[in-house]
Amino acid sequence: MASGCDAEGMVDEQGERAFFESLPRSRGAATALVCDGAGRVLVVKPTYKPGWSLPGGVIEQGESPLAACRRECAEEIGFVPVVTRLAGVDWMPPRLHPDGRAATVFVFAAQMGRRGVGDVRLAVGELSDVALVAVAELGSYVPAAMLRRVRACLATSSAVYLEHGWPAAGLEVAQG
């Protein structure tokens, strides 16, 4: 029963569970777009994939995107930066992932505060390097879709909605 109720209007818990189990699955991730006082972006080099990335990772079961962002930063870089706002949400299409599932990436703007790159403590076995990179040089570090995502998030003080790093059709990206 799609309604989740039996003939007498009582909740059919097994039917309701079966319905929810049948729904499509997507993955959630949260990243921190951490900038220093000079406007440089903190990037990390994972050991399990090529290239560089922003600190962050998968949202665990029952965890909020903001909690995931803070947890991943603590795990990956050894501290939680000062999170200032939700900067953007980026939907990543299923074709990009080996399991064929879409992913939604929550991007939180954050500041280094009084910390410097020397204060970063990389997660052993997960990350091999860290750098503070000028936005103009990010293209040499991160994939094109991530570069589009970062630029879109930095271009406005409002949260942006993106699809694979591009502003979604029919939505305007506010400037400043």
From TrEMBL:
<protein>
    <submittedName>
        <fullName>NUDIX hydrolase</fullName>
    </submittedName>
</protein>
<dbReference type="GO" id="GO:0016787">
    <property type="term" value="F:hydrolase activity"/>
</dbReference>
<keyword id="KW-0378">Hydrolase</keyword>
<dbReference type="InterPro" id="IPR000086">
    <property type="entry name" value="NUDIX_hydrolase_dom"/>
</dbReference>
<dbReference type="InterPro" id="IPR015797">
    <property type="entry name" value="NUDIX_hydrolase-like_dom_sf"/>
</dbReference>
<feature type="domain" description="Nudix hydrolase">
    <location>
        <begin position="24"/>
        <end position="155"/>
    </location>
</feature>
<dbReference type="Pfam" id="PF00293">
    <property type="entry name" value="NUDIX"/>
</dbReference>
